[in-house]
Amino acid sequence: MAxxxxxxxxxxxxKRKNNPEKGSYTDYLFTKGLDKILKKVGEEATEVxxxxxxxxxxxxxxxxxxxxxHVEVLMAERGITPKQIKEELASREGRQSRIHxxxxxKNW
Length: 108
Ligand SMILES: N=c1c2ncn([C@@H]3O[C@H](COP(=O)(O)OP(=O)(O)OP(=O)(O)O)[C@@H](O)[C@H]3O)c2ncn1[C@@H]1O[C@H](COP(=O)(O)O)[C@@H](O)[C@H]1O
What we know:
Strand content: under 5%
Largest sheet: none
CATH class: Mainly Alpha
Radius of gyration: 17 Å
Order of helices and strands: HHHHH
Structural class: mainly alpha
Bound molecules: phosphoribosyl ATP
Number of strands: 0
CATH architecture: Orthogonal Bundle
Distance between the termini: 39 Å
Number of helices: 5
CATH superfamily: MazG-like
Mean pLDDT: 92
CATH topology: Helix Hairpins
Helix content: 55-70%
């Protein structure tokens, strides 16, 4: 099955932002602006939560994909790149064990 690379999807989203294309949903979101994009991210996140609670929901993957796309649109709108997210995640490597030392976390 073909796969969509998330970095390439981001590049395409950015291309739509910089070169608006009539009829493109991505262009529609950028035209509507930040509040619309935030609303969509919120809706899609809620749909992921609902689908995840239902073991037999066939739409779970679809909802996660929708959320990933809308988060990338939000990142492009705010000028944040996948590289920055990867760097942030990389900076956390090796920190996991520290959570066991935290006395404020109960029932770990
Ligand atoms: N990955 C996506 C993608 N995921 C979800 N969606 C759109 O997100 C919308 C989510 O559906 P909803 O029912 O929640 O929203 P809606 O009722 O259509 O629209 P709203 O009025 O609620 O905003 C659908 O219209 C989907 O088409 C996407 N639209 C585009 N892409 C990719 O973005 C790239 C650029 O595509 P264009 O937007 O067509 O230029 C391409 O690689 C596309 O495959």
